[in-house]
Amino acid sequence: MSQAMTILRGALANAGAAYWLRDARVPACLLDAPPPGPVDREGLVRVDLSVAAGRIAAVAPAGSAPDGLSLDGGQIWPGLVDGHTHIDKGHIWPRMPNPDGTFGGAIGAVMADRGAKWSIEDMRARADFALRAAHAHGTVALRTHLDSYMPHAPNAWAMFRALRDDWAGRITLQASSIAPLDRFAGEEGAALADIVAESGGVLGMVTRLTGGLHDDLPADFQPMLDRFFALAEERDLTLDLHVDESGETGARALREIAATALKRGFKRPIQCGHCCALSLHPDEFAAETIHLCAEAGIAVIVLPMCNMYLQDRVPGRTPRWRGVTLVHEMRAAGVPVSVASDNTRDPFYAYGDLDMVEVVREATRILHLDHPFGDWPRAAAATPAAALGLHDHGLIRVGAAADLILFRGRVMTELLSRPQADRIVLRAGRVLDAELPDWRELDHLFTSG
User: Fold this and answer.
1) What is the pLDDT of residue 213?
2) CB under 8 Å to 158, separation ≥6 — which residues?
3) Contact 205, 146 (CB under 8 A)
4) Could you tell me the CATH number of the domain that includes residue 27?
5) Which of 78, 164, 165, 390 has the smallest number of Cβ neighbours within 10 A?
6) Which residue numbers delimit the Amidohydrolase domain (predicted)?
7) 393 near 172, Cβ under 8 Å?
8) Are the beta carbons of 415 and 75 closer than 8 angstroms?
9) What is the mean pLDDT of residues 108-123?
10) Residues 172, 299: one domain?
11) What's the CA gap between 124 and 108, in Å, rounded?
């Protein structure tokens, strides 16, 4: 941390229950009210922000505060929302690496590790480690997908329920099931849906079938999809789906999901993740699919780091595409688009630390979310918060909890050019005294015997 931020951190620790943060910049799109001053070409507005009794008391034009702590033009963002993660499988790379980095290799490696190692204690230790990192980085809400296969599913959801209770008041946690679509047929599907409903969860699946990849839709795809929707309707469950995560042009489940939601008049929120294959489809088909998603009210969440890592990976061959979906076209059509972490240090992605600031930085570069930056900062905050039904998260709003991230970086090129260790996380207006967990804390999970 820079000397200036160290000084500010010390001053905040002694600031009392009410204070002003002066001379700050805020992305105007992350304000829940009209900006109190002119917005610059990067979408930033200069403000003074008042904190009192742990909440945001005022957002005023720069120069309004009679006194207070100066950010010297540095930025303030709200706590961020990570709407698609996998904390039950996170951090298994040291004992179960992906042999070739491919999607198929990841599936095989995770299946082997899950069958041999995933006790409640093992999952909870790794998931808690991941949440401690997310918390220290400034994440305030997170949705994780839980591998939900019988007979493993009851243990995974028991682990999550305990973890959600432990983390109440620090990170708002949600969970969604994930299993291949065919797993939801018959009695197993009803049992999985019941576990999700009893746990206050989200019904999720992956549009590939057991043992397969995301490629041509099978002949019985539609009956299985209708069965999945029916399970959700019977239990009034929200949906969160892994869709078309490949470079195969036969992977066209996103269109069928949107059409099915419209046909059935499905009323609950639907979030679809990945949707990679759409960027390789003919323009006419892609436009039709996006139109149907907008009409059905589907939100799309993009995982740029993981998808660029996995997609188009062929040993000895340079990748030809980035593996991500049509985010600009989706947003232009009115489809809400979020970005998220996805996997961390597991066979699907060997890296990552559940740092949404890293996700914003890399997404901006990979997806060209710049020139102009416009309202793309919402994709890590207000947009996923709305998709997750967390309308009190993701915006800087008078009366909201002062859960904020303070940056030394002033303009966007400063903010996005460094890893941003130079940040201060505030929770309820107080400096968050949380350190990133040491990797060595997990060593006991990776020793044999």
Assistant:
1) 85
2) 120
3) no
4) 2.30.40.10
5) 165
6) 223-431
7) yes
8) yes
9) 95
10) yes
11) 22
* 421 and 293 co-located in one domain: no
Of 339, 383, 337, nearest to 359 by C-alpha is: 339
Q: Is residue 129 part of a domain?
A: yes
pLDDT digit string (tens) for 200-213?
A: 999 999 999 988 88
User: Does residue 375 fall inside a structural domain?
Assistant: yes
On whether both 376 and 300 belong to a single domain, the answer is: yes
pLDDT, residue 449, reads 47
Q: Are strands 44-52 and 55-61 parallel, antiparallel or unpaired?
A: antiparallel
Specify if 449 maps to a domain: no
Regarding whether 149 and 102 lie in a shared domain, the answer is: yes
Select which of 245, 329, 362, 435 is catalytic: 245
Residue 233 known to be catalytic? no
| pLDDT at 448 (0 to 100) | 63
- 45 neighbors 63 (Cβ within 8 angstroms): no
Give the C-alpha separation, 179 to 241, whole Å: 10
Judge if 290 and 332 occupy the same domain: yes
pTM: 0.96
Domain that holds residue 360: 81-387
For residue 36, give Cα distances in angstroms to 75, 253, 382. Answer: 15, 44, 19
**Tokens read off for 189:** 């599907």
- Candidates 389, 313, 403; CA nearest to 356 is 403
CA distances from 145 to 92, 153, 259, 273 (A): 16, 12, 24, 11
